[in-house]
């Protein structure tokens, strides 16, 4: 079996470092106004973006720059400068969505690989072959494509890499080609500023033109989430996907999501890939970890079942569901932590750390770190800040950095079951 790349989102420099520490083989990120996630693109400036490329390469990982927006005529000249600037940083590939941008990138940076965005809607070998002939070394397949189709494309075009999404938000529209946000709020989804209108509650009405009567059609007294898609979760199918030898990269969606999301998803799919390659795949292990995340409900999408065979990909009740765990703190340096929710003395908090890391066990005046049933926990006796101030408890919003009893791996998280 061929081991696929694990590709994680890098919404900012901290999330990029978390992805690398938790096992990503590659990361993708954007800067400026030319990707479909302008909010995360604003998290980077040119200096931190270049630093991100350097960090990825230092860790033996690849860095892909997303320039997959659909530009207006007035954006072409700035786009040319942007491509040149990002190429000079040494990115490993551009993720692009249109033939015009692809052609432009090939002219300006001929040595930089081209990955075709999922926005290009490739679902068959005819389209894949055309883009490959134009210079794409990889396609990010449409999320509506099946695994059987991926296998056929690989058979027809063996030198073309295939990347699929394995986890993250799903759009109710075909391959993300949605205009609802543009119509309702003037925010253009295909240029990076989608307002996620599909997640809102809506009410349905029926009107009689004869009597001018208007009736509300009630499914729920507070409305219903008509278009709200569940989140994609293919963790249970990773072994099956790998066994086809058709998929070269497994991609996690979520550049605008939390640091814990990046850590947890990268960690879970790192385990799934490595376990599948070692012949000890256990779906429940990865599903447990992913269920700790806030989500919209999970679906396995269309990679195994065709769209018309599915009737469980929408969440009509809520646009967000609590996961099984609450994240309480993050430690970037392993020495102190910053509170994300609440920390109190004499309560156990589970430690989430990169897979290959070592956890120091012991007890001192600040607290103790111990192992129980294969998991690691910390309990605080005292909450003492880096500056020496003691607290009875720490809540989110408190900017004080609190000392850990023992040094933990960098980018460790503390969580509790809800």
Protein model, in words:
It holds the Pfam family Peptidase_U32. GO terms for molecular function: peptidase activity. 26% of the residues lie in helices and 24% in strands. It is an alpha/beta fold. The chain folds into three domains: 5-175 and 228-309, Aldolase class I (TIM Barrel, Alpha-Beta Barrel); 177-217, no CATH class; 325-417, Elongation Factor Tu (Ef-tu), domain 3. The mean pLDDT is 90.
Task: For this entry, give a set of tags.
Elongation Factor Tu (Ef-tu), domain 3, 11 helices, 24% strand, 8-stranded antiparallel sheet, TIM Barrel, globular, 24 strands, 3 domains, protease, 8-stranded parallel β-barrel, alpha/beta, 418 residues
**Poorly predicted parts:** none
CATH architecture of the largest domain: Alpha-Beta Barrel
Looking at CATH, the homologous superfamily of the largest domain is Aldolase class I
Q: What is the count of DSSP helices, taking H or I runs of 4+ residues?
A: 11
Describe the secondary structure blueprint for this structure.
Layout: E1 5-9, H1 13-21, E2 26-29, H2 38-41, H3 46-58, E3 62-66, H4 76-88, E4 93-96, H5 99-108, E5 113-116, H6 125-134, E6 136-140, H7 147-156, E7 161-168, H8 180-185, E8 204-208, E9 213-217, E10 231-233, H9 238-243, E11 249-252, H10 259-278, H11 283-290, E12 298-299, E13 325-331, E14 336-339, E15 342-343, E16 348-352, E17 362-364, E18 367-372, E19 375-380, E20 383-384, E21 390-391, E22 394-395, E23 402-403, E24 412-417
Parallel strand pairs: 1-2, 1-11, 2-3, 3-4, 4-5, 5-6, 6-7, 7-11, 10-12
Antiparallel strand pairs: 7-10, 8-9, 13-14, 13-24, 14-23, 15-22, 16-19, 16-24, 17-18, 18-19, 20-21
Helix pairs in contact: 1-3, 1-10, 10-11
């Amino acid at each position: 079996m061929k081991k696929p790349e694990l590709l994680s989102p890098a919404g900012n420099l901290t999330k990029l470092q978390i992805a690398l520490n938790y096992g990503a083989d590659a990361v993708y990120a954007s800067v400026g106004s030319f990707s479909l996630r302008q909010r995360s693109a604003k998290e980077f400036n040119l200096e931190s973006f270049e630093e991100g490329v350097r960090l990825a390469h230092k860790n033996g990982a690849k860095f892909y720059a997303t320039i997959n927006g659909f530009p207006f005529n007035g954006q072409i000249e700035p786009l040319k400068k942007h491509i040149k600037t990002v190429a000079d940083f040494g990115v490993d590939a551009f993720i692009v969505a249109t033939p015009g941008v692809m052609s432009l990138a090939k002219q300006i940076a001929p040595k930089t690989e081209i990955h075709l965005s999922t926005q290009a809607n490739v679902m068959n070998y005819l389209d894949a072959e055309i883009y490959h002939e134009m210079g794409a070394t990889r396609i990010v397949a449409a999320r509506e494509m099946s695994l059987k189709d991926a296998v056929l494309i690989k058979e027809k075009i063996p030198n073309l890499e295939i990347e699929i999404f394995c986890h993250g938000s799903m759009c109710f529209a075909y391959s993300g080609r949605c205009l609802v946000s543009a119509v309702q709020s003037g925010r253009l989804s295909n240029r990076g500023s989608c307002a996620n209108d599909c997640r809102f509650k809506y009410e349905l009405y029926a009107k009689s033109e004869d009597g001018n009567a208007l009736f509300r059609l009630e499914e729920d007294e507070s409305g219903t989430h008509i278009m709200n898609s569940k989140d994609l979760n293919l963790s249970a199918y990773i072994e099956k996907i790998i066994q086809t030898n058709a998929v070269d990269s497994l991609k996690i969606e979520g550049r605008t999501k939390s640091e814990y999301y990046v850590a947890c998803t990268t960690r879970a799919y790192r385990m799934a890939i490595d376990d599948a390659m070692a012949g000890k795949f256990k779906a429940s292990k990865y599903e447990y970890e992913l269920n700790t995340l806030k989500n919209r409900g999970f679906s396995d999408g269309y990679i195994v079942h065709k769209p018309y065979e599915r009737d469980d990909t929408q969440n009509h009740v809520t646009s967000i569901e609590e996961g099984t765990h609450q994240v309480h703190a993050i430690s970037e340096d392993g020495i102190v932590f910053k509170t994300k929710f609440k920390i109190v003395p004499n309560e156990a908090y589970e430690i989430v750390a990169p897979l290959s890391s070592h956890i120091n066990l012991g007890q001192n005046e600040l607290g103790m770190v111990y192992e129980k049933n294969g998991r690691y926990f910390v309990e605080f006796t005292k909450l003492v800040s880096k500056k020496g101030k003691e607290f009875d408890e720490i809540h989110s919003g408190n900017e004080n950095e609190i000392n850990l009893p023992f040094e933990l791996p960098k980018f460790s998280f503390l969580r509790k079951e809800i």
